[in-house]
Automatic annotation (TrEMBL):
Keyword DNA-binding on entry: no
PROSITE patterns linked to this entry: S4 (PS50889)
Keyword terms, alphabetized: Protein biosynthesis, RNA-binding, rRNA-binding, tRNA-binding
Gene: rqcP
Cited InterPro entries: RqcP, S4_RNA-bd, S4_RNA-bd_sf
GO BP: rescue of stalled ribosome
Keyword check for tRNA-binding: yes
GO molecular function list: ribosomal large subunit binding; rRNA binding; tRNA binding
Domain of life where this protein originates: Bacteria
Stated name of the protein: RQC P-site tRNA stabilizing factor
Pfam families per record: S4
Amino acid sequence: MRIDKFLKISRLIKRRSVAKEVADKGRVQVNGNLAKSSSNVQIGDIVKIQFGNRTIELKVNALHESTKKEDAQEMYEIVSDERKI
């Protein structure tokens, strides 16, 4: 699954166009490598996302084509959540 689609379906980012923009600006890494919006993500991958002064690192647990709001969090497990002061 493409990283921009994963970010949208897992509801980490609300719109796919925003997820694409974030990835293409170099703010997303998959397994330590910079990811473009078309980069593939698989179960077990570690994804690191930088939101301004916040960095989230998560592990991909599941890939679904669509999810309900309450099921979206099952797609990933947060490994670390850091804020820069």
